[in-house]
Amino acid sequence: MLCALGTPCIYYGTEQGFEGQGGDNDVREAMFDMSKPGTNLLNTDCRIYKAIGQIAEVMRTTAPLRFGRMYYRQISGDGIHFGFPYGTTYTLAFSRLLYGSEVLAAFNISGQPRSDYVIVDASVHYKGGTLTYLYGGSGNVPVQKAGDTRFIQLSLAPHQFVILT
Question: 10 or 96, which is more confident?
Answer without folding.
Answer: 96
